[in-house]
UniProtKB/TrEMBL annotation:
Entry protein name: Phosphopantetheine adenylyltransferase
Reaction catalyzed: (R)-4'-phosphopantetheine + ATP + H(+) = 3'-dephospho-CoA + diphosphate
InterPro entries: Cyt_trans-like, PPAT
PANTHER family noted in UniProt: PHOSPHOPANTETHEINE ADENYLYLTRANSFERASE
Cofactor: Mg(2+)
CDD domains: PPAT
EC number of this enzyme: 2.7.7.3
Domain Cytidyltransferase-like span(s) in chain numbering: 6-134
Length: 162
């Protein structure tokens, strides 16, 4: 049976920290489906379509990585895609409590789906999409934090604000 993992998140926008987790995950699993959560409770900077497109362009050199989006419960989406694993990245202790809760509830909902945690690459341990947006908003460079096309997309988004 092929091992298929779903890597869920907001990816608003994708950072080098996300790409590090995705590319390392792709060396372990036969297929990695990066799934952009369409969360109506959050006010994102990029639309789901824009986030999917940025992920597509920044992972196109990884043949076993697929980009998609989903609504609703993650575990339902995982089953729909015939996946058997969830990949999450861990940055700091602060990520741990929430991720433990999510992994536990997902196991309760479906025991056959396993959650795998990958430790952040040390150089990205401080990196989050929110931090990147905060910096880009004030027109400071984010070239060490995101791929060039993401920096360009951020520049366009914030061109007419502040
Ligand atoms: P955020 O908005 O906090 O950047 P997302 O919800 O888009 O994150 O995260 C998707 C997944 O990527 C989560 O499992 C998250 O822990 C992981 N992740 C995000 N940034 C990093 C990073 N710098 N290093 C490792 N994992 C990360």
């Amino acid at each position: 049976m092929a091992s298929i993992a779903v890597c869920p998140g907001s990816f608003d926008p994708v950072t080098l920290g996300h790409l590090d987790i995705i590319s390392r995950g792709a060396t372990v699993f036969d297929k990695v489906i990066v799934a952009v959560l369409n969360n109506r409770n959050k006010q994102p900077l990029f639309t789901v379509e824009e986030r999917v497109e940025l992920l597509r362009q920044t992972t196109n050199q990884l043949p076993n990585v697929e980009i998609d989006s989903f609504n609703g419960l993650l575990i339902d989406y995982v089953k729909k895609k015939n996946a058997n694993a969830i990949i999450k990245g861990l940055r700091a202790v602060s990520d741990f409590e929430y991720e433990l809760q999510m992994a536990s509830i997902n196991r309760k909902l479906d025991e056959s789906v396993e959650t795998f945690f990958m430790m952040t690459n040390n150089k990205y341990s401080y990196l989050s999409s929110s931090i990147v947006k905060e910096i880009a908003k004030y027109h400071a460079p984010v070239s060490d934090l995101v791929p060039d096309i993401v920096e360009e997309a951020l520049r366009k988004k914030y061109a007419f604000s502040s």
